[in-house]
């Protein structure tokens, strides 16, 4: 090999840390409303403004949310947990310490299983999930670009200060930007399904950082990592990680060393830039918060929460794939709307192990039902008229050939508008498809007599003329005739000279 | 009948409830007394006469409407580290000079509800850090028994106001002895309840795991009544005890038969000087004469109390005091950037003792020192609590000095912080263990100088956790048998303007 340059191949090692604002009525340690937006500094009290003498009291619902997140990821819930103070000065942090959890988080371990775009499976273990409080928001004025450098003064809005914040830390087990994004997407969906967060990146209720390093393929040691911040969408997570992997690759290729540091993602220029090095890292002086008593998590309470976990996205994926035979793209289309998935699975559950029925229900839901919901501007759980039972009846009627697909569409429209049972409507109003050959035969004769030209065209070899004739049979039967039966009867008659 | 300002809180409340005297009259007598003696005492940082007048009118109306209030028309001094809505609340610090509290501490709110009249905000060592009140950045308070001497601390203003007849009651707070030592110095009753008995909500924190509010009064009965009003669970304080409060007043007794009183082997009073030693031995003999069985108990870790306390308390303080950063309230000294603003504000706003403790505490929590200092101190704290547990297996109460000397002259210990810290040698172990303890006058010693005054001494009684009723019962018996300060007022010089 002497004299030959061998290009080293590297693999990426990625870990994700993400912060999720929890959906609760009140803030983490006080009674102020937990609501996005609002005029600056209107959702405040002595506690979240850290007035002298004010004390924190933990929000029980927030604790439940974190435990439920852990249970949904199959994590262990300890019987004992506590809050610690993370001490550092920052103007938008009212107490100049953050109440967080250091060495005894509410959740340890767990795993997030995910599916990639092509449907293949992946997973990444979690290190921990802990509960803390959010900070306020600083706005830097006078610098033109909103940056602190060159600003004349800063304004602080404390509305967000004290909002319950869940921090999820993954193990460094992701190997590509694609997997990092898939992991994040399933994490986001999990919290959405649990109903514990709005998980909106654009509103900051989901924020994430990525730890990225690279190492020669086959190596078991970690390279030096950098922490990437300021990524505002899944797309920027993907771009930032890709860009950082490339940057580290070229640093190593040029014989350099990757420095351990925090880097910011620059969306406009598509690069990361150095923010601070490890040497400038804080000593947070963590210690147990003496204002709060340790949390004792009763096993019975945890089991009760476990029982209430409900559907999680990866389980939904697998059911939609197995029970409904949906393709990955179709599942992705559905998965982001937990209510729609639950509606479909509720429908499918009415005829277990009937794949054809499940597929029909899924097709109706993804097609006509979604279209109708969009036209009305409502979500599936925002309307009361169309029930899973009604969708099941429609699918069954259509599958059994009892109604035509045209009738089925009209039925769905009617049920969506005024409610009711499709089966009852069909029975009451005689909408059932005509499948009795003797009845259809009469209509066929009538149509042939009235459309001599089409008959002649067909007999002269114009295959298409049959379509016009079937159309006429449907018209005369007011859409109820079974079109396949009508066509075969027509062909039979047309053969006879 | 004695002058209104000399009457006990119990007597005042009885007279106001019986409509023999109005709350407005009681207030008038106390405001007049304040005007006469305050120039020589300086117990208050601010007077809240308007608020008190308004409250007095409300109390009179309530009484006229047939209501009976447990502390109807009783003037109370509020230690200035407790929030009282609409009043300047400073904690004796320049960093909070002029800050008006927008809410009221739970304990203070309960006193107002019980009919108390808040006459003013009492002086204290800055952030309650000190044993002489000399660390107040905002005023000098003198001992009514000898105005060349300190009133003790940190609750110096509270005890001086009660001793001098400026208020019948005062709120105080105790972290390592800040109620018991000044109560001893000024010849009044001061009581620190079990940790968690009285809500800390609205008490400006010094060391959260040790801070506890308690009553100051001229009689044990008054202290018990005031404690009864302030004690009880508060949902605004997560460390507040959820257990019911035993009534203290019906439990008061005049003998100590059937009680075993432990004398602490390690707290030999021989080293305190012949006169003081004799006074404490007389006090112990009196307890025996009242029927108590005197037993010998050991607190082997008591000698580590001071060291333990001076790690834990500053560690918590360093974090608790971070919020005084110039951003949201209080003093702000502008700088070129936010770091400089923090530095200048805190340099100008905090006094030397506060800075010393912030430095000690920051050091003790720092990475690399945390285990050696903070964690070890917590272990020593656990050992101290264990000492008391074993001691209370052999006795029902512990008796010991409340301070290692009577009140000393201004400046006597200012150059040597450790000699000042040693004033709390006898009170700190109980604070570390969270136990209820009380100081009751137990005689006088002459200061030895020509024409020297007699200075009060305090006997400290300590009970097991939650046994406040036993503590008050025994202290009442001792007080009624000895009557050291019941029939004798300090020689306060009244000034005429």
Give the structure's gist in a few sentences:
The complex is a heterodimer of chains A (497) and B (497). Chain A is an alpha+beta fold. Chain A is 39% helix and 19% strand.
Give the tags.
heterodimer, A: 497 residues, alpha+beta, nine-stranded mixed β-sheet, 15 helices, 16 strands, 19% strand, elongated, B: 497 residues, alpha/beta, Amidase signature (AS) enzymes, eleven-stranded mixed β-sheet, 37% helix
Structure description:
The complex is a heterodimer of chains A (497) and B (497). Chain A starts with 9 loop residues before the first strand and ends with a helix. Chain A is of the alpha+beta class and 497 residues long. The model of chain A has no long low-confidence stretch (mean pLDDT 91). Chain A is built from 15 helices and 16 strands. The radius of gyration of chain A is 31 Å and the shape is elongated. Chain B has two domains: 9-260 and 393-482, Amidase signature (AS) enzymes; 302-377, no CATH class. In chain B, strands 1-3-2-4-6-5-10-11-9-7-8 form an eleven-stranded mixed beta sheet, with helices on both faces. The mean pLDDT of chain B is 96. Chains A and B meet through loops of A and helix 9 and helix 10 of B.
Rounded average pLDDT of chain B: 96
**Radius of gyration of chain B over all CA atoms, rounded:** 21 Å
Shape estimate of chain A: elongated
Query: Which topology of the largest domain in chain B does CATH recognise?
Result: Amidase signature (AS) enzymes
- Counting helices, strands and paired strands, the structural category of chain B is alpha/beta
Oligomer: heterodimer
- β-strand percent of chain B reads 5-15%
Topology:
The complex is a heterodimer of chains A (497) and B (497).
Chain A: E1 10-21, H1 60-72, E2 80-81, E3 84-87, E4 97-100, E5 107-108, E6 111-115, E7 121-133, E8 137-141, E9 153-157, E10 164-170, H2 177-194, E11 206-216, E12 226-231, H3 234-253, E13 261-266, E14 271-277, E15 287-288, E16 295-296, H4 299-307, H5 313-324, H6 328-335, H7 338-348, H8 355-376, H9 388-399, H10 405-418, H11 422-429, H12 437-450, H13 452-459, H14 465-476, H15 483-495
Parallel strand pairs in A: 12-13
Antiparallel strand pairs in A: 1-10, 1-11, 2-16, 3-4, 3-15, 5-7, 6-7, 7-10, 8-9, 11-12, 13-14
Helix pairs in contact in A: 2-3, 5-6, 5-7, 7-8, 7-9, 8-9, 9-10, 12-14, 12-15, 13-14, 14-15
Chain B: H1 9-17, H2 23-41, E1 44-47, H3 49-64, E2 75-79, H4 106-113, E3 117-122, H5 156-163, E4 169-174, H6 180-186, E5 189-192, E6 212-217, H7 220-230, E7 260-264, H8 274-289, E8 293-297, H9 305-320, H10 338-349, H11 352-365, H12 371-394, E9 397-401, H13 417-421, H14 428-433, E10 437-446, E11 454-462, H15 468-482
Parallel strand pairs in B: 2-3, 2-4, 7-8, 7-9
Antiparallel strand pairs in B: 1-3, 4-6, 5-6, 5-10, 9-11, 10-11
Helix pairs in contact in B: 2-3, 5-6, 7-15, 9-11, 9-12
